[in-house]
Amino acid sequence: MAMKDPKPVTSSHFVVFPTKKIAGLSDVTEDHAKLLGHMMKVVAQVAKEQGLTDGYRTVVNNGKHGVQTEPYLLIHVIGGQQLKWPPGVNPETEEKKEPEKTNEVAELTDLLDSLLIQPKAEEEKIDHKA
Fold first, then answer.
1. CATH code, 59
2. Cis (ω within 30 of 0) for the bond into 86?
3. pLDDT reading at 119 higher than 60
């Protein structure tokens, strides 16, 4: 699935996520390989539909130090303008900040919860439809 990010950081910012919950990149297993490939195809398709012909950046935040603010594997796609490199904070020259817990984050978490297919206890395999 894909949707516009409710708190965009560029003029074009959307997220791609699976229909079954994966808490983060650290929770991915070999069984998720096909799903992750499909998610990347969705990234390319939606980026093309959004007119991101000059390029875009994909970002997966994972864990506290990766500034993951919601417990879902999300591929952020940001573009629509010239991006700078390197992204992020240089810990030797800039102050680190904890991710801000905002109403937007809580709303995104609630929205993701409502969109996801809840697995049954006996299900072990991931449905590969993102």
1. 3.30.428.10
2. yes
3. no
Q: Domain count for the chain, please give it.
A: 1
Distance CA 4, CA 11 (A): 11
Asked whether residue 118 carries a pLDDT value surpassing 70, the answer given is no
Torsion angles phi and psi, residue 56, rounded to 5: -165, 170
Q: 58, 76 in Cβ contact below 8 A? A: yes
What's the average model confidence in pLDDT over 63-73?
93
First-to-final CA distance of the chain: 5
Residue 72 has a pLDDT of: 95
- Residue 31 lies in domain: 2-82
pLDDT at 85: 85
